[in-house]
Specification:
90 residues; 33% strand
């Protein structure tokens, strides 16, 4: 009986962690769409900007994921959502 209670508590903890991770990524997609439309994100992480080639790269870092915008003057702006370990621009 005691082993069953411990197993139930472990499954409850795993379920809570999964729900929090899913909620974090849903908020991430909302932030991605807000940034790509030129609006303010719901919450802002660390923002850094640098030049790469002929364009400017802006990175909004949210620990697990990051939103990268690559702007080539007078041409276009591309947005991408990447995990923390991926390169910003190839």
């Amino acid at each position: 009986m005691k082993e069953k209670k411990v197993r139930n508590i472990i499954w409850i903890i795993i379920d809570i962690i999964i729900v929090l991770v899913v909620a974090y990524f849903v908020l991430g997609y909302i932030n991605f769409f807000n940034i790509s439309k030129g609006k303010e994100p719901l919450f802002d992480g660390k923002v850094s900007t640098y030049e790469k080639g002929i364009g400017n790269v802006t990175v909004h870092n949210y620990a697990i994921y990051k939103i990268v915008s690559y702007e080539v003057p007078d041409t276009n702006v591309t947005y991408s959502m990447k995990l923390w370990f991926m390169d910003d621009i190839k």
